[in-house]
Amino acid sequence: MDTVRTLSLILATLTMGLITGAFAVFWHAIMPGLATTDDRTFVSAFQSIDKAIINPWFMISGFAGALICTLAATFTQLGRPAFPWIALALALYLVAFVITIAVNVPLNNAIKAAGLPERATDLATIRAAFNEAGWRAWNLVRVLVSTAAFAGLTWALVVHGRTMAS
């Protein structure tokens, strides 16, 4: 059972780090870069990025993987010293997960469904309807809560290691 506890906690920490990095890259580089582009480039690039990111590797290693692995770590550490840190990480990541499903995915789907019309006025309307500022603000919340979840899981690894050593 100790191996399962350790492995589930390592996988939870790893997947949380990966999804935190993905959210952070959008905050630090992708969205600021796209903000400087014209409407056609913004809509086209965002549609391409959204299409590319929805893949099994991203889902398993990051988005859903962080939730599944953190749930597994939570259950395997019930009643153990690392449990509170893992439970906190799970609660924090659930906030990011819900924000993604409730806010970011609907905005992504709307811009994707709009296609890429030829008229510049339609492109400006699509971009405005996307609500860049709102998407970025909610993404910042995802960055902050997933970073805190990653920190909680990292500390849980320390606590777990100390428990195993004693």
Automatic annotation (TrEMBL):
Protein name stated in the entry: DUF1772 domain-containing protein
Pfam family, one: Anthrone_oxy
Regions that span the bilayer: 7-30, 57-75, 82-103, 140-159
Organism superkingdom: Bacteria
Keywords per UniProt: Membrane, Transmembrane, Transmembrane helix
UniProt keyword Transmembrane, yes or no: yes
